[in-house]
Amino acid sequence: MKSNRRFKVVLFLGLQGSGKGTQASILSRKYGVPVISPGAVFREEIAKGSELGRLIASFVSQGKLVPPRVMHEVMRVKLPRNRCGVGVILDGYPRSVAQARELARFCPIDLALALRISDHEALRRLRGRRVCSVCGENYHVTERPSRRGRLCERCGGKLMVRQDDTPAAISRRLRTYHKETEPVIDYYRKKGVLIEIDGEQAILTVHRAIVRALGLNK
Ligand SMILES: [Zn+2]
């Protein structure tokens, strides 16, 4: 029997390398709900060379998180109020309790999915991560290689190591995540909308757990 339940707003929480970008992308294609990821928007703006893009690049190239006021500007443009009523998957936002509170003012969250992985596993995975330089699709040299080798399966764009995936930048981001984003998990737990999933499992296993959590049929 096919479930009629549709989700409106789902967000992914997890360390860089937890697979949340990949899971968001799979879910998006399967159910036709768009993903809004500040990271992808940042890369788009940087590639366009816009004023916002140049500002973002100045932080990213140092492995720093983009400051809240810039993040807010991005979300204001990319996540209009009506999008929350139609359905959206958020990947990489909110990153702090302050942002979660801001989001709650105009976007009710159905489900917050936390993908749990250890720092050690995050580091191992991040080293193999590649991103399409054109459309921002995520790949991994061993876990999700492109069927077209060094080119993107979707658009043929060249795959690259992300600018912010240098070892020093990764370590800084892990520390910031534990300090600022871990409390977001507690925030959604208290709201009763948190589901935690072991992110060290295979991609398909994690995907099935997400589908079950959403009450959707395969
Ligand atoms: Zn692409």
Give the total of domains: 2
Q: Residue-averaged pLDDT, rounded? A: 87
Can you list the strand order of the major beta sheet? 2-3-1-4-8
What is the β-strand count? 8
**CATH class division of the largest domain:** Alpha Beta
Low-confidence stretches: 1-5
The radius of gyration computed from the alpha-carbon positions, rounded to a whole number of angstroms, is 17 Å
Label the structural class.
alpha/beta
Would you identify the CATH H-level superfamily of the largest domain? P-loop containing nucleotide triphosphate hydrolases
Helix content: 40-55%
Number of helices: 9
Secondary-structure element order, N to C = EHEHHHHEHEHEEEHEH
Q: What's the layout of helices and strands?
A:
Layout: E1 9-14, H1 20-31, E2 35-36, H2 38-48, H3 51-60, H4 68-78, H5 81-86, E3 88-91, H6 97-104, E4 111-116, H7 119-126, E5 129-132, E6 138-140, E7 159-160, H8 167-191, E8 194-198, H9 203-213
Parallel strand pairs: 1-3, 1-4, 2-3, 4-8
Antiparallel strand pairs: 5-6, 5-7
Helix pairs in contact: 1-9, 2-3
Bound molecules: zinc ion.
